[in-house]
Amino acid sequence: MKILVVDDSLVYRTAIVRLLKENLPEATCFTAGDGIEGLATYLRERPNYTLLDLLMPGMTGQEVLKKIKETDPEAKVIILTADIQKFTENEVRDLGAWFFVHKPITREKVIALAEIIKGAS
Amino acid sequence: MLTPLQQDALKEFMNVSIGQAGHVLSEMVNQKVHLEVPEVYLLQNQTEADQRYLKKIQFLTGHVVSSSLRFGVVCSGQARLLFPVTKGKQLVDLLLGDDLFLEIEKMDDGFSETDTDAMKEIGNVLLNVIIGCLGNLLETPIEYSLPEVEFLYLTEKQHRSMFCDGYYTLVIHNTFLVGENRIEGAIFVMLCMDSAVQLLHKIDEMLVDLYG
């Protein structure tokens, strides 16, 4: 199983990958620090699951999500964002996001995500 | 200048927003966060800031760390979260002290690149809560710029520069108590005139709803 984590915060990217590996030892994780790198990594690796921040340099998460869904309508993309606006949640759900998780990312939230991924695999 | 009822309604709304900010901060540091009741001001210009607020921000004189982001679409302006640099470092240490970040290299003095990244994320999350609450209140979508972290040296004279004529400035003076740490900071939200008028209109609607 391949999981891609796209977040411009190195601190959180590192923590998310560590917790994913603890809870999904069979997963291979890839990371990207901005939207452009994230999309390129997605197209190269075709991960089963993508964890995607919204507010990032280069391309926003919304733009990356749109491109991913154009390429692969079945892609499972989980949005991670600090944005609490209902408009934003509706927007990414309309774009085809699979799950929506509010930041800050905590151990409990990553474990819950790992369970969701296990259940879907 | 707000009427006492408008001031009360604005304070109550910001109380709820700061409560949500306290909740996300608690998630970030994985500890209970106590909140002191925030002081809230909506200041129209530098003169009003001189009269009503500037003497209250002596704690932001000297070295401060600032996280800021711009926002726009229908409601536009800039939001800035300021802490004295020692308090900002305390907050970062509390965040990185959580075992979620075991692999992160820690630095005792000063801000490392990792500390700055963590401070950016703290600013991003807290400012998103405050501005997101405003967006939800105004029922309008808001777009954000990337957050920026700056280290500034502020004199009393420079405090005035945070208040620009032509903008309303919403100031939220907040204190978070995390364990034995008392972290005093301030949030400045510069709102363009149209956005401030919308906010006041919404506050009036809330008052009509409450009092008829």
Automatic annotation (TrEMBL), chain A:
It comes from the Bacteria. SMART domains: REC. The modification 4-aspartylphosphate is found at residue 53. Residues 2-118 form the Response regulatory domain. Signal peptide: none annotated. PROSITE patterns: RESPONSE_REGULATORY (PS50110). The keyword Phosphoprotein applies. SUPFAM superfamilies: CheY-like. Keywords: Phosphoprotein, Two-component regulatory system. It holds the Pfam family Response_reg. May play the central regulatory role in sporulation. It may be an element of the effector pathway responsible for the activation of sporulation genes in response to nutritional stress. Spo0A may act in concert with spo0H (a sigma factor) to control the expression of some genes that are critical to the sporulation process. This is Stage 0 sporulation protein A homolog.
UniProtKB/TrEMBL annotation, chain B:
Keywords: Chemotaxis. Residues 6-41 form the CheC-like protein domain. The keyword RNA-binding does not apply. InterPro entries: CheC, CheC-like_sf, FliN/MopA/SpaO. It comes from the Bacteria. PANTHER family: FLAGELLAR MOTOR SWITCH PROTEIN FLIN, PTHR43484. This is Chemotaxis protein CheC.
